[in-house]
Protein 1
Amino acid sequence: MKSNLKLLPYIFALVSITFWGFSFIWEDYLIKNNIEIFAFIFERMLLSAVILWAVGLLIGSIQKIEKGDMKWMFLLALGEPFIYFLGENFGIKYTSGVLAAVIIATIPLFCTVIDRILYNFRLSFQKIFGCLLSLAGIIFFFMNKGGMGTSPLKGILLLFLFAVGGALIYGYTTKKMCQKYSPFTIVTYQFTFGALLFLPLFLIFGLKGLTPEYFTMGVQSKIFALALLCSCICFGLWAYCTGKLGVTRVNIFSALIPLVSAAVAYFLFPGQESFTTLKFIGIALTVTGVVVVQLVKDVKAA
C-alpha cells in the first residue's frame, strides 16, 4: 500500500503532461485559426474557476484561506496562469514551436539553481546531468524541424521572462502553500485570481474576438477541454506532485510535454509528424534525464 502511495505523484505527473501535451495542439489550433488570445484565455480561466467552485461547494472541499495567505495565493496565480500563459501563447505565436519547447524545457535547470540559493540544496552532478540530458533530448527531437518564427527575438524574450519566470514563481509559491492547503483549494483560488487578472485584458483586447466563428463547436469544445482537463484536473494533480516531489523533481517531467504533443500530432494527424532517428535519440535522452533526476535525493549542502 505504501509503495502504491509513493508511485502516486509520478502517475499524476504523467497524467498531467499527457493532457498538457494535448493542450499545445488545441492552443495551436485556436491561434492558427485567428481566435483572439485574450478571449479564449479568459474564458478558460472563468470556466475553470466556475467548475472548481461548483464542485468544491458541492463536496465541501474548499478550505478557508487565512488572511495572511491571500497574498501568496495571488502571487501563485500571478505566476501561473497569468504571467506563464502570456509568455507561452505569445511566445509560440512569435517563434516556432521548436524553439518554444526547448526554452520551456530549461525550467528544471533554473529550479536546480534556485533550490541551491533558497533551500541550500546540494547541486549534485547527477541532478545537473539529468536536467542537461532532458534538455539535450528536446533539442535532438526537434533538430530537423525548420523555422524560427515571425519575430524570434521577441518570442524568446517572452518565453524566458514570462513563461519560464511565471512557472518558477508558481512552482515555489505552490510548494509553500501545499504545506497548509489541499491541491483542490490551491487550484480553485489560482484560477479565480487568474480570471480576475485576465478580465481587464479581455475587456480591452478580447471583446473584439467574440465573432460568430468564436462560438462554433470546434472552438468552444477545445476551450472547454483546456479548462476542464488541462486547468482543473492537471493543475490540481501538479500541485499535489509539487508538494510531494519538490519543484525541481516535478518540473523535469515538463521536458516530456513537447514529446507527447508531437506523438499526438503524429497519430491523430498522419503526415504532419514523422519519427526520425534523431527524434528517437531525443526521446531516449529525455526519458533518461527524467529518471536520473528522480533517483537523486535532495540533500542540504554542508
Note: The chain has one domain: 2-294.
Protein 2
Amino acid sequence: MKLSYKLLLGSAAILGLLAIGVLIFGNDLPATGPFVIGALVFLAIGGRGTPRIRQLAFTIWVFAAVAVGMYFPQYFQRIGDFKFTSLIVPLIQLIMFSMGTEMSLKDFEGVIKTPKAVLIGLVSHFTIMPLVGVSLAKGFGFPPEIAAGIVLIGSVPSGVTSNVLAFIAKANMPLSITIATVSTLMAPIMTPFLMKILAGQFVEIDFMKMMLHVVEIILLPIALGLIINRLIRKGMKWLQTVMPIVSMCGVLMMLIVIVSSGRDALLNIGPLLFLASMIHHSTGYLLGYWSGRLMGLDEPTCRTISLEVGMQNGGLASGIALQMGKVATVGLASAISVPWMTISGSLLANWWRNQSIKEEVNLEEAGR
C-alpha cells in the first residue's frame, strides 16, 4: 500500500476518534460534523489502496453525502431565491443520459436468449416491491404522504447500481443489464399505474401527469444518450470513462440535496422509516432470489434477480416526488432507501462474491 493511502487511512481513524471524543466529553453532536465527514472522505480515498475497502468506496461516499446533508442542510437548501431541489430533475436526467450513452442493442439480447429469466425478473420486480411497500406503509401507520413515498420507492424501476453489484456478486451480468434496461423503459407506464392503484389511497395521483414526468425524466435523456452513442461514440471514447464518474457524482449531489430538504422530517420520523426501508429492501432481495429458485433458475441468475428486485431507482423516485411538489415528505423514503440499498446491496454482493457457485447438476442425468 502506498504511503499516501496509509496517511489518509490514519487521518480517517484520528478524525473518527476525535468525533467520538467530542460526542462523549463535549456532549455536542453538531460539533462532530466536520470530523465525521472528514473521516469518511479520507476513508473513501485512502481505502483505494486496500481491496476490501475499495469495493465499499461508493457506499462510504454515500455515507459522507448523507452526513453532509444532515449536519449542514442550510448550505444545500437555497441561495437567495434559488432552491437546490430544482437540481434534482436535471441530475437524474444527467444520470439517465449517462445510462443511454452506455446502452446498445446488446442490452436487449437477454430478452431473446433468456426470456424466462427476464420475465421472472420483471414480474418479480414490479410485484414484490410495490406490494411489500404498501403493506409496510399500512402496517407502520405512516402519515399519508410518507406512506405514498414508500409505495413510490417500490414502484420505480431498478437502479444502475444493481449492474455494478451483479458484477461484484458473480451474478449474471448481461441479464442484470437487460432487466434494468427493460424495467426502466417500462417505467413510464408501470410506475404511474402502480402508484394510481396502490398509493392512490394515500394521496391524489394524476396518472397522465406522472407518466409525462417519467418520460421527461428518464426516456428523453436515455434517447439522447443512445443517439450520442450511435453517432459520435467512436470519436469520443473518453465519454465511456467520464460519464460513469459524472453519474456517480450526480447521485451523491442529489442525495445531499434530498437529505438537506427533508432533514427535519428525517430527524422526527427517520428511525421508523429506516426500519421500514430495511424490511422493504431485504424482503425484496429474499423474495427476488427465491422467485428464481422456485422457477428452477441457476444460482448466478437467482442472484441477479435478487439484486434487480431489491435495488430501486431512488433518484427517479425523488424526481417524481419533486414534480408532485412533495419532495420533503413523499421524497423521504427515497432519501432513506438510497443509502440503505447501497449498503445492504454492497454487503450482499460482497458476501456472494466469497461464496463458491456449485455446479448445477441435471438431476435426470445424475440419476442415469
Note: The beta strands are 78-79, 82-83.
